[in-house]
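Example record used in the benchmark description.
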Amino acid sequence: MFLALCGAEPAAFWLDAGTDASRGWSVIGMGRPEPDPEKVRATRLVTGADADGIPFRGGWVGWLDYEDGAARAGAPVAAPPAEPGWIAVHRAVAFDHEQRTAWALAPEAELDAWQEEVAVALAAAPPSAPEPPASPTPALARHDVAEYADLVERCREAIRRGDAYQLCLTTRFTVRGQTEPLEVYRRLRRATPAHHSGFVRIGDRSLLSASPEQFLEIRGGIVRTSPIKGTRPRGATADEDARLAAELRASEKERAENVMIVDLMRNDLSHIGEPGSVRVERLWEVESYPAVHQLVSTVSARLRADVTFGELCDAAFPAGSMTGAPKLSAMTILHELERAPRGVYSGCFGHVGLDGRVDLAMVIRSVVVQDGTAFVGAGGGITWLSDPHAEAAEVATKARAPLAALGADLPAAWAALDR
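Model output (structure tokens):
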């Protein structure tokens, strides 16, 4: 459907519930770049019951860079924040995977014509599988393994001094050369399907994400966030896989890392939630994906009246799972250590509806393509109990699948960790 209806559009999106999804919603569509991001920030969030089950009925789809949120929070940034990338949506199709139904969404005067286009696309034969990438090329690493391990130790020293409890230390891998972003995304979603995946193209900049982390959702007057902190690779056998999941569930370090961010998100949501309404809905639940096991929790609050999307972002963005705690101190320390911009990685993407409904995912397990260059960010949460070698190995595990979709290999020293 996306290839048929939106594949050639310069401003288009595919919010993807995953391959062969049996629940949830996917939304594809097109529009024009939004010239005034403040219109998105001014959107008032829904505080009552939703009108119906369709999660998006018009508004904006796009992303926020990490530096945008960090600068607004008062943290130093390594580069001036880029303008937020939003598409003012003109036409869309929403897919209910559980009911196996599709909804055509367009301005009233264009709805009949758009519905016909959608019906033709639904009846068409499916496209062939994406072509495999060419022979692998090595990615370029922002930090080598030894440098990253040294930065882990410097994070631990900051924690020992009492300047932070936890720090999300990141790095970046770069792949140069022309690539077709949509084909890369099709390979990525087949290899690592996730419930908050997505492809967003705005001009010459494309985001390709297999994100398993829902950052913020506004539904029925409730705001929810589901931070992921704690990772293990999948095992080669069923027994090894079960052992790794159990190890993650029982890990003192991973549980501490997770609960610190849960506490931070409780504080963030308290700024826009009704007093007494903040609660932890689940804690330390293992979710399994094709490449990794993750430790996930969910925090929620009932929204106060008249909260805007901008106020929500000011309270909660950047996400604590990508900064650490305390948030401002963590962002300041990470700026000194990383000394380079994160860009869209560590930011968020998704939709902001004119009706005040919101669904945003974290930009992790992702590729950003711009001007013939692709970027893959990866990182992990550092606590006092962190082992530098294990933290570097976690980075390699997270970066491997997005790089493979690009047809790129981890640099040799990083690849040696991911075994």
